[in-house]
Specification:
By secondary structure, the protein is α+β, with helices and mostly antiparallel strands. The chain has helices at residues 18-23, 54-62, 66-76, and strands spanning 6-8, 11-13, 32-37, 40-45. It folds into 2 domains: 6-45, Pemi-like Protein 1, Chain: D (Ribbon), CATH 2.10.260; 47-77, no CATH class. The chain has 3 helices and 4 strands. The strands form 2 sheets. The chain has a two-stranded antiparallel ribbon with strand order 1-2. Strands 3-4 form a two-stranded antiparallel sheet. The radius of gyration is 26 Å and the shape is elongated. It starts with 5 loop residues before the first strand and ends in an 18-residue tail after the last helix. The model has no long low-confidence stretch (mean pLDDT 86).
């Protein structure tokens, strides 16, 4: 297969045809590893990101351990506010 390097913002990119990606079982937003070996570029589906747990992903995203994340979440939850709307003035059913 032959493709062209195109400008993409300040970077460069290549387009891979859909049948090519389907043949390799690659989908949108899949994480890939890219290697350079002399004059060869190797694109390989990443195995590291696929097997992370939700806890690992949260810790990586926030840069904190899960206990700190959960504690901050608990502290940020606001208590409900009770509002007295007064007595009914029509035929409302409560």
């Amino acid at each position: 297969m032959t493709t062209t390097i195109v400008k993409w913002g300040n970077s460069r990119g290549i387009r891979l045809p859909k049948p090519f990606l389907e043949n390799l079982n690659l989908k949108d937003n899949d994480v890939v590893d890219v290697f350079a070996d002399s004059e060869t570029i190797i694109i390989k589906k990443s195995l590291t990101d696929r097997h992370k747990t939700l806890t690992q992903r949260l810790e990586e995203f926030y840069g904190k351990d899960i206990e700190s994340i959960l504690k901050e979440a608990d502290e940020s939850i606001e208590q409900p506010i009770v509002v007295d709307w007064g007595k009914p003035v029509g035929e409302e059913v409560w």
